[in-house]
Amino acid sequence: GQQVMQIPQYQHVQEGEDFTTYCNSSTTLSNIQWYKQRPGGHPVFLIQLVKSGEVKKQKRLTFQFGEAKKNSSLHITATQTTDVGTYFCAGPRNNNDMRFGAGTRLTVKP
Amino acid sequence: GAVVSQHPSWVICKSGTSVKIECRSLDFQATTMFWYRQFPKQSLMLMATSNEGSKATYEQGVEKDKFLINHASLTLSTLTVTSAHPEDSSFYICSAPSGGSASSKAFFGQGTRLTVV
Prior knowledge:
Chain A is about 0% helix and about 55% strand. By secondary structure, chain A is mainly β. In chain A, the strands form two sheets. In chain A, strands 2, 4, 5, 9, 10 and 11 form a six-stranded mixed β-sheet that branches. A five-stranded antiparallel β-sheet of chain A has the order 1-3-8-7-6, with no helix packed on it. Chain A is globular and about 40 Å long. The mean pLDDT of chain A is about 95. By secondary structure, chain B is mostly beta strands. The chains are: A mainly beta, B mainly beta. At the A-B interface, strand 5, strand 9 and strand 10 of A face strand 10 of B.
């Protein structure tokens, strides 16, 4: 079945350093979504990418959708302590539900 | 924006008892809602898809008689953990897609932390 793989599982950075998490699907995705879950909280929608090769920015966050619509990345420039949390990608499975990646847990040392 | 409310946010129950968790879409209708289970520092594991007016669809390995799902209206889905045991202790979280498609942007409830003693 369709799987969404996400790496790395953990990332610890010094404040100010950049951070990237990668998401790969075994099948072509109609869209990919990114969520952020703060420690003790619930996932919050960040963005949805639909077009092949699409790039979207939200302040220091840059989201990319691969040309083949099988991979995606989230890049954070100059991390801050407020960026701490787990970032999940999610892709639709047969339009019935969303498959979540394992998540990348980001910690930021001040 | 769309809001999904989940209640209770935490519950402690004795082994053998049942616990009901509610998930409400406050300002939109949701014919489909999803129930996830999340262990500490792990990803969201889809348990079942709740369908308004019909039976829920359970993922492989999830006992439907243990995790009863009812989607009685377009704004409410409930998950009942029956005869709870300590191994059922976990973070349960629901979500509802904001659009007509199950793959549209999802709004999550606040989650319910269940502890079975």
